[in-house]
């Protein structure tokens, strides 16, 4: 029967995750303090790889860890390069996955281009750390996701950015806004997002579009007093009077108008022919 050995001091890496379970790639508060303050960075000369290993084994045994577990031992290796020099490999994975991803991709680019950087203790430490990081499925999944091109910014404007997560991963930000009637945009705007994440950036875009839409909507016009309707009493009386006239009277009146006009014209002409009489004077006819 195989003997089972229990190591109470074995330590596992605890990744920081966002609300949806994805790895957070922004530096932690502690990591940001070190990055932003050079006085907190270790400027001492890098140690040899064998000494780093000896120190790590001593730490593992002291805490009751498994000295035969390569991952457990590498977790206590101390970084010999970069701004986080002096921190353990495990600490870097737990505090700045984004920097970890950068180191791995940069090293792969060098190898693909056939570039050989100067060898040294710092480079040995870098190679050991990359091997340690790649032993975790979480890091492998992150690199595969980024290599697939999903969510990669290759657009000329914010409208064309890809959502990059969830069921709308391949939709653009503009498509998400244009289809806001389905409630997804409102859902994103109402979430509590971690700054720097894809969801946070999409949320800021949607809120900006919402503000622009609200500003461009014309204000409700002030209620105006309804104009007093025109009184139609006189028109109605005139209409009734017109309807009360018989057709024969209407025809007679319409005939009398030109006759009277002709008589007045003839009278004015005759008066003009009499010497000393003005056209407007009465003739007595």
Keywords:
285 residues; mainly alpha; 12 helices
Describe this structure as you would to a colleague.
The protein has 285 residues and is an all-alpha fold. Among the domains are: 29-147, no CATH class; 158-215, no CATH class. It has helices spanning 29-36, 49-62, 70-74, 89-95, 97-113, 121-133, 137-147, 173-178, 184-189, 198-216, 233-244, 247-273. The radius of gyration is 47 Å and the shape is elongated. The protein starts with 28 loop residues before the first helix and ends in a 12-residue tail after the last helix.
In short:
The protein is mainly alpha-helical and 285 residues long.
What's the count of strands?
A: 0
Instruction: Measure the end-to-end span.
Output: 154 Å
Low-confidence segments: 222-236, 249-257
Major sheet? none
What's the average pLDDT? 78
| Amount of beta strand | under 5%
Radius of gyration: 47 Å
| Order of H and E elements | HHHHHHHHHHHH
**Morphology:** elongated
Which structural class should the secondary elements be placed in? Answer: mainly alpha
Helix share, percent: 40-55%
Provide a count of the helices.
12
Secondary-structure blueprint of this entry?
Layout: H1 29-36, H2 49-62, H3 70-74, H4 89-95, H5 97-113, H6 121-133, H7 137-147, H8 173-178, H9 184-189, H10 198-216, H11 233-244, H12 247-273
């Amino acid at each position: 029967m195989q003997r089972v050995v229990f190591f109470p001091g074995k330590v596992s890496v605890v990744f920081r995750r966002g609300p949806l379970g994805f790895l957070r790639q922004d530096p932690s508060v502690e990591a940001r303090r070190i990055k932003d303050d050079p006085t907190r960075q270790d400027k001492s000369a890098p140690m040899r790889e064998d000494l780093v290993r000896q120190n790590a084994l001593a730490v593992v045994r002291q805490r009751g860890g498994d000295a035969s577990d390569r991952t457990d031992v590498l977790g206590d290796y101390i970084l010999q390069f970069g701004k986080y020099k002096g921190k353990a490999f495990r600490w870097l994975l737990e505090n700045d996955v984004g920097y970890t991803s950068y180191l791995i991709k940069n090293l792969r680019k060098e190898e693909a281009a056939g570039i050989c950087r100067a060898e040294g203790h710092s480079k040995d430490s870098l190679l050991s750390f990359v091997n340690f990081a790649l032993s975790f499925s979480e890091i492998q999944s992150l690199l595969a996701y980024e290599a697939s091109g999903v969510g990669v910014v290759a657009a000329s404007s914010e409208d064309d950015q890809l959502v990059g997560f969830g069921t709308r991963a391949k939709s653009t930000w503009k498509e998400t806004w244009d289809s806001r009637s389905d409630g997804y945009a409102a859902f994103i705007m109402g979430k509590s997002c971690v700054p720097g994440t894809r969801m946070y950036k999409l949320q800021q875009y949607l809120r900006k579009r919402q503000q622009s839409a609200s500003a461009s909507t014309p204000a409700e016009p002030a209620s105006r007093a309804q104009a007093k309707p025109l009184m139609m009493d006189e028109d109605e009386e005139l209409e009734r009077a017109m309807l009360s006239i018989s057709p024969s009277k209407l025809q007679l009146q319409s005939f009398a108008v030109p006759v009277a006009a002709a008589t007045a014209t003839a009278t004015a002409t005759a008066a003009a022919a009499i010497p000393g009489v003005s056209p407007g004077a009465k003739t007595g006819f």
